[in-house]
Amino acid sequence: MLAEKLRFEPHDISHALDRTGRYDLELDREFLFVIKLFHYTSEHFTRGATWHERLELFVPLDGAVRFRMGDQDVQLERGDLLIVDNLKLHQVMDFPGFDSRVAVISFMREFVYSLGSPAHDHAFLLPFDAMMEGQPHVLRTGDPQSGFVYHELAELLQCYFDRPPLFQAGCKAMLLRLLHRLAQRFQNSELLRADFLRQQERAEQLRKLLAHIETHYAERIALEDAARMVGMSPAGFIKAFKRVAGMTFVTYVTHVRLSRAAQLLRETTRQMADVAAITGFADQSYFVRQFRKHFGQTPSAYRHAHTGKPTA
């Protein structure tokens, strides 16, 4: 089995996350592609939701995984392939006995398609751009296309980690074959190209607001003010924000605050009451409840796990 020949590392990405949960990887501008091999266990993996610009395929190789995207939970079994909705906050969830090795294939959109590419190259991105709300793209092991897809996946992994001559060109060719198989599988849910462009326009329209939240997360931001900032009606803003972020505006602001709180717990010795106040939580008990809901443990337990020190 190919997985037995590969080296998996414990899932620890906390150093690559910013205060909003953005997961940044430094990629070679000439090769905007990377494969990460992680070993998840209940005892060791980075908790909390992340998002990123990179497109991503997530494949558990030898165990079950519970994956959350936005407000939806997806149960994955060994060999299932998930097409991640990358701009939505997403995370792996813990459960008793959690132990799985996972291959994560990431690449920038322009690695496959850019404005200078032939129009038909956009078909390679249909598995990502044609997702419907509430209908995650998961290729199950029993799917008729799975055998072809896993053959392409195995060849891609072998090329990437063996590094034969011209391995970069080989990886791109194999990735395109893999994406072509996935596009064929999920073409029935294809969104019109115009819908995709509108989605990109919405994301660009919200960019100013997201930047504002990143630096003013502790301040109260009324929904009406947020809508005005991006030139939308409140009703249109609610719909557009949920479509782009995968969650409500209030949930997103709470997530940013909690991500900053987690950073303060890891990197400072401030008391819990101070951490809550600094990050915009006037009620400490509410802060503790929200933190536990988001990270699966209390702020005190989180600090102890990362620093060995309890929170006062």
Please provide a written account of the structure:
This protein is of the alpha+beta class. It folds into two domains: 2-189, Sandwich (Jelly Rolls), CATH 2.60.120; 194-307, Arc Repressor Mutant, subunit A, CATH 1.10.10. 42% of the residues lie in helices and 14% in strands. The chain contains ten helices and nine strands. It has helices at residues 126-129, 146-162, 167-186, 193-216, 223-229, 234-245, 249-267, 272-278, 284-295, 299-307, and strands at 9-10, 33-41, 55-60, 65-69, 72-76, 81-83, 90-93, 99-107, 138-139. Strand 4 and strand 5 form a beta hairpin. Helix 5 (223-229) crosses helix 6 and helix 7 packs across helix 10 (299-307). 32% of the residues are buried. The mean pLDDT is 87.
Keywords:
312 residues; alpha+beta; Jelly Rolls; Arc Repressor Mutant, subunit A; six-stranded mixed sheet; three-stranded antiparallel sheet; 10 helices
Structure described in brief:
This protein is α+β, with helices and mostly antiparallel strands and 312 residues long. The chain is built from ten helices and nine strands.
Shape: globular
Looking at CATH, which topology of the largest domain would you report? Jelly Rolls
Please, how many helices? 10
Q: Note poorly predicted spans.
A: none
- At the first level of CATH, the class of the largest domain is Mainly Beta
Percentage of residues in helical conformation:
40-55%
Give the SSE order as H and E letters: EEEEEEEEHEHHHHHHHHH
Distance between the termini: 49 Å
The largest pleated sheet is described as: 6 strands, mixed
CATH architecture of the largest domain: Sandwich
- How many domains, as an integer? 2
Oligomer: single chain
